[in-house]
Write a sequence for this structure.
């Protein structure tokens, strides 16, 4: 799995659920009845004061967490002769009690009883369907939740943004990602049109959908919104990972630098990634400063690998004094041939030939070099500068056995042969 993809995997699905409050109060029900009456869609019956008073008393008991008493009183209400609307509101109050009791299965049954009553106000039907869909969602019964919400969509004229997000969540959980995308985009667009910013968990859901659809271009745009509206290090890091996936290293670096400048990179891996990105764009000095501060702050551990990376940064920045100190620590800690090889390179740059020779010998002895041929070429170069032409010739001859170094080694061998002949001629002529 690609590094950038794995960064996203750990967090991309954590988008959160809409808060669920699936209950209808008596006051709300009265308002809904009035609205339905005005629409004249259905003939609405009234809630008589005596029934209202009994149901309101039940609500008060439920609010006091006296659930058994509330259910007993509801059972007594059921013995009273009631019209269809009063029956529906009795079932609705059962749902209220069960929900507050956290008996969600009971609440679901009560809401289904509401819907089973004939001729209930359209507004009550709408509210009940919506609440029921949320309850199914809480129970992780996504299929039934989506079916119920789709019924709700058929009986409302102007669904709100929350409803589209709710349906998108259900579709996401059912892995219907292509269907979830239009709903989440619709919800976000509706909120933006009102001049408001979309909720963070809405954008997180959009992010999750784009990720599942492998739409990294739009995923980057979504993460830009998240990082701008809800600034967090994780969003900048994920945005950088997406830019890496898209093959846009400059944008990847910009995202990481934005997070760093806001002190949002708080983990070792995040700081190391920033350093690698800086070196990848040939900004080694800043990379070294990032690593140096991370080590000082004890966010980055002084492991051989991390010290070696810092040494690389100082060396690329041509800060050889600092590079030698750090690379010597790395080589001592790791005993790795590559670290001794890097140290030999630094001493070579400073023309410290004997120190360079000691370290290249240590590198070859370690026997775990990524490119043994490069070590032989370097050693030959050092020996040439130490005026040991014969031994240098032998090193280049060894390097010539490696295909990737054959051409360069052959050039050196020819040059040394020519230099030896020149010296022999000069000696004989003198």
């Amino acid at each position: 799995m690609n590094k950038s993809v794995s960064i996203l995997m750990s967090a991309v699905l954590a988008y959160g659920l809409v808060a669920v409050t699936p209950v209808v109060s008596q006051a709300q029900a009265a308002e809904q009845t009035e609205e339905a009456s005005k629409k004249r869609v259905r003939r609405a019956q009234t809630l008589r004061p005596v029934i209202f008073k009994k149901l309101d008393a039940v609500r008060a008991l439920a609010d006091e967490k006296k659930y058994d008493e509330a259910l007993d009183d509801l059972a007594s209400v059921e013995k009273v002769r009631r019209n269809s609307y009063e029956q529906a509101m009795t079932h609705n109050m059962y749902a209220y009690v069960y929900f507050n009791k956290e008996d969600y299965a009971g609440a679901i049954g009560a809401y289904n009883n509401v819907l089973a009553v004939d001729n209930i106000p359209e507004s009550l039907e709408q509210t009940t369907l919506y609440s029921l869909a949320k309850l199914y969602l809480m129970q992780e019964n996504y299929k039934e939740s989506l079916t119920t919400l789709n019924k709700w969509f058929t009986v409302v004229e102007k669904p709100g943004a929350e409803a589209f997000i709710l349906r998108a969540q259900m579709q996401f959980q059912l892995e219907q990602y292509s269907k979830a995308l239009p709903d989440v985009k619709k919800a976000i667009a509706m909120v933006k049109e009102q001049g408001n910013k979309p909720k963070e968990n809405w954008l997180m859901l959009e992010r999750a959908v784009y990720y599942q659809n492998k739409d990294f271009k739009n995923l980057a745009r979504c993460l830009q919104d998240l990082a701008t509206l809800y600034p967090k290090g994780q969003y900048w890091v994920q945005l950088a990972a997406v830019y890496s996936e898209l093959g846009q290293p400059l944008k990847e670096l910009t995202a990481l630098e934005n997070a760093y400048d806001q002190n949002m990179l708080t983990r070792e891996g995040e700081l190391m990634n920033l350093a690698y990105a800086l070196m990848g764009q040939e900004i080694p000095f800043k990379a070294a400063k990032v690593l140096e501060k991370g080590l000082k702050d004890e966010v980055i551990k002084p492991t051989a690998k991390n010290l070696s990376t810092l040494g690389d940064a100082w060396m690329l920045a041509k800060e050889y004094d600092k590079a030698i100190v750090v690379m010597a620590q790395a080589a001592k800690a790791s005993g790795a041939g590559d670290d001794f090889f890097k140290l030999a390179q630094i001493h070579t740059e400073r023309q410290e030939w004997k120190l360079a020779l000691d370290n290249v010998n240590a590198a070859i002895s370690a026997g775990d070099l990524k490119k043994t041929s490069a070590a032989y070429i370097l050693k030959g170069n050092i020996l040439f500068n130490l005026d040991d032409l014969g031994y240098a010739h032998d090193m280049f001859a060894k390097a010539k056995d490696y295909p990737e170094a054959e051409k360069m080694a052959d050039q050196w061998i020819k040059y040394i042969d020519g230099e030896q002949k020149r010296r022999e001629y000069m000696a004989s002529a003198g």
